[in-house]
Amino acid sequence: MGNYKLSSLPIDSLQTRFVEQLARDNLMVEAATGSGKSTRLPVWAASLGKVLVVQPRRIACEALSAYVSEQLALSGSPYKVGYSIRFHSSVNENTNIAFVTPGIALRWLAENQLADYTVLIIDEFHERRWDSDLLLALAKSLPLKVVVTSATLQGNKLSEYLAAKVLKTTGREFPVSVSYEARESHHLPDSRRVTDSVKHAVQKALIKDDGDILVFLPGRAEIQACQASLSGLDAEVLPLHASISGQERKSILDNSNEQRIRRIILATNVAETSLTIPRITSVIDSGLERRTKQRAGRTVLSLERVSRASAEQRRGRAGRVCAGHCYRLWGEFAPLESVTPPQLQREELLEPMLFAASCHRALAKLHLLETLPEKSLSIATERLNRMQALKADDCLSQHGQRLLALPIDSYFSHLVNLIPEGAEREAMLDLAAALSINRALFQKPKSEHGLKVLSQWQPLHCDMSITLDLLRGKTWPDELSVNQEALTQAQELAEQLRSVMALDDLAEAKNYSRDKLLEALLGEAKELVYVRREKRTNAMGNGSAELQIGRESLFDDAQVAAVVFDIYSLPGRGVKQLNNIGLCLAPVNIELLVKHDYGELESKTNVAADGSQLMQRVYAGRVIGSEKVALSAEDYRLALAKRILANQQSGFSQLDCIQDMAAWNLWVSLGEKHGGGVGDKVEPLEWLSTQLALLGVENAEDFSLIEASDLAFEGIPQWQREDFEQRYPRKLALADLKLEVEYKAGSKQVIVHYTSGGRKAGPKRWELPSWSGWRVFYVKASKRVTLT
């Protein structure tokens, strides 16, 4: 590396050991917050060759690249430093140290196995992001040295997994005291009064402490609320999250010695690791974060309490320049979990599986730190196969390769690639950009007048259309509230995606056919199509999932069907309950669903004399059309059998064979030792269909020659039938009480169900058959009692 003079940091004591051991082994470096590991280790490792440094956040990649580059320039080092994040890169063939996000590293690994690099450093590994976990699993087999760093790690488990030597050092130079601000020692972090609690703690810190204040909040909404609440204080209140501009971030991270007003930095988890914010002496920790987890097969973003490990990371932000203090807005003995569960254990696995296959590895067969949930693997495999993204478990199809060409959610990329090239694909690309920023572009007017004006401007009541109109610069009415910041962000992303696809700028976007775009999706992405429930009109279903129509959607009350482009999932009250909110709905005519064969045909009428039947087409529980269908002989017999079993076929109601089969199945289930007999159970629908075939029934004319007696079933021997029915009746008529009887031979239970009668009390045991050796229960409504 050379003898370059850099300011002293706690981790400097490891320099010699680090360089010597890295030449021979993989390393795990456990160094506390503030040790300098993120800035020193890449420089030391560069003495062995080019270094790829993986940082979990884009904002950290840019900031660390700038800081290390500046420090090396001041010290006279020849090393060149760059960064690469989505859409931005300063890395070239002369770069010695490259700071990148995990997604970029995975893409480079898929391209050339990271052949340009000698050392891979995965920083802040304790966050246990899926992309960092996957990258480490893939990199283990590559011919390069791997360094994993963190402030908090379970060292033995990781060092054994990586076959790595462990280096440790302290990091915090100054003590940080802690106070717990909740009234009770067991109180958990609480989101209900977070704004008031933060304001109270900030006012206390402004009086008691010197220096700037860093406040940890779960998200942008809470940051905006607290920013408004703190606006009257004698301090500069600044937000810090992933969406702020580069200039705003640079101002916050500026370490100049100019005298200035005290600052209050309102930050998300982006400030928890990697970034060093100067002059912070007080940390106020809400104890909350927005974290993904899996619920009912989908990844949902929920408000969660931080782990104790995360709380320690946050506390460490106050001890960088002098002694500090951390105000925790919960009780000292609140039962927080020790560490945050890894993402691979709590999220869908579609993206990890896609990236693993891009590197010719099957996710299910990779040796990871923890075994992956089988259900999550199954769901991801099924979804990717439905998208036709996989050629094999460890190989992408051509379509799968196209999905990774766009640096957005793979499902949005899938939709873009489903549309034929042309103006409609461009429109889908722009829409994907707008949906990828995860922010609403507009709010509907609340007044009747405003809604009328909006309806006149957007007569189709289509969220897709209005989103594209706003994105492409169409002038909107004053009554519509547009989030200009979100719109600008969406437009910037659309321009970047267009550049990747080598398309014209957004200002030159071609006019598209809304109908052509939606019809392409109706044919290729049927899971996006929902129909309104007939009774719960704010709910829609697609046959496998249900959602609520978002409050800001333009979808009109009179519209029935829609393509739903985006769904926001929230955890419900129960452990498995999930609330899905449809965010971008494009209405479609229900006739188009019939045209594309949505739903199933269901019989609602008798078979006509010509062998045809009027069938209803039912999709997600709603009738969307009807059509006359000519039945094959097999289908004709099946339809007849269903109607006979349902007592809907004239002349065949109360058919003896139905009762005979029911008695036979009970006889077989009881077996000889319980007074039954030997044989196989019969399935009534299958038996009737087969019997009709044996009778030569192929059409209505054939069936007209059949009588009920032709469908006789030879079941229980006649000489045993009467005695058996007396001992094991299936229906009972008592005084003012009618009952149906269910037998469970395996557990020797008899369940007597109330069907009708005015008697308030249930049957007495002496009124029933003896049923010796059986337990007898009486069920009425939802109440079940034992009869003794």
TrEMBL record:
This is Helicase-related protein. Gene3D superfamilies: 1.20.120.1080, P-loop containing nucleotide triphosphate hydrolases. The lineage of its organism: Bacteria, Pseudomonadati, Pseudomonadota, Gammaproteobacteria, Alteromonadales. SUPFAM superfamilies: P-loop containing nucleoside triphosphate hydrolases. It comes from Agarivorans aestuarii. Residues 201-367 form the Helicase C-terminal domain. It comes from the Bacteria. Keywords: ATP-binding, Helicase, Hydrolase, Nucleotide-binding. Residues 18-171 form the Helicase ATP-binding domain. One of its GO terms (molecular function) is helicase activity.
